[in-house]
């Protein structure tokens, strides 16, 4: 869904209902609206004073990958129970593990805890005639509503890593002072063509956002030679050397100039802020 289609959906809904109490109820072609995409569409409309909106924050629960599988196929403990045939003979433990793999251990433990099965020799037998897969029902309820009324059951499902807590933000939306079903295209610059034709007189211009942060300047970088010099300083410091206050020293011009074969009257001698002492 494009931003333009989403904006049209919001404006048409507001025109019919005056307000949108909760954007979680919005749908497009039968599918729920992505709230993150909706935020961009609402912000664009608000910048034109067409709508006002406020966030609604709530905690919801979602199923993990394993939780989705159990909601569809049934819990491990229920599948273990169904795999054991009725009667006194039961099912060998090794056969159960071969059938379900790692899930057999978890399902077997929960089934024992629920007193659905018992152990008879090396076999597992049913302790009850029938069961209700409450775990699957709870997962299906969370899948459809995002929550569960039983806090103890939520804690148990979280402990089994079947659900995750998530923060969901939706929005309440109302009409703005310049609400309209038509979204006017705003000009951002005055072009030469607009000045020549006089179109600028009737054009609608986008307002400047004086609170927007500017682009940080790219200047102020260290010179590569200064970076290398600093690296060598740090190396010498780590080796135990101490820096001498050479800025306080009076040095011989012989080593700075004559030893470098710089002529006595060369202008470069004055270019380095050289002061001579007698």
From TrEMBL:
It comes from the Eukaryota. GO terms for molecular function: ATP binding; phenylalanine-tRNA ligase activity; tRNA binding. Residues 207-277 form the Phenylalanyl-tRNA synthetase domain. The keyword Mitochondrion does not apply. Keywords: Aminoacyl-tRNA synthetase, ATP-binding, Ligase, Nucleotide-binding, Protein biosynthesis. Residues 75-131 form the PheRS DNA binding domain. GO terms for biological process: phenylalanyl-tRNA aminoacylation. It holds the Pfam family tRNA-synt_2d. Gene3D superfamilies: 1.10.10.2320, 1.10.10.2330, 3.30.1370.240, Bira Bifunctional Protein, Domain 2 (3.30.930.10). GO terms for cellular component: cytosol; phenylalanine-tRNA ligase complex. This is Phenylalanyl-tRNA synthetase alpha subunit. It comes from Rhizopus azygosporus (Rhizopus microsporus var. azygosporus).
